[in-house]
Amino acid sequence: MKKSLIVLLAAGALTSNIAFAQEAEDVVYSTEGYCLLSNEGASDEYLKAYAKKLGAKPTNSVCASFKKIVEESRPREWDYPAGRAYPGSVIKLSPSQVALLKSLKKKDGKM
Fold first, then answer.
1. Which of 38, 41, 42, 92 could be a cystine partner for 83, CB 3.0 to 4.6 Å?
2. Does pLDDT of 64 surpass 50?
3. What is the pLDDT at residue 80?
């Protein structure tokens, strides 16, 4: 009984490691992802590792162009339809979060 339990646990551990390895292989590295991480202030070590996985470090001008495109695609005024944080977002805000954001914008005079 003990031997079969040990064998079962070992098989389970091996299977879970394989699943984690498969998930790691499914990661997609992109220039856009690198630029977003860089703009968000990711550490230099993380960016270096990301660039290595990507195969090259995107230039500052490429990231600046990408940042400009992102800024131009987002509306200046957004009324959070259906609780969406911005157009195309999968993030849904609760009604209380939307109300808080709107009140903050009014307070700043941006709305």
1. 92
2. yes
3. 82
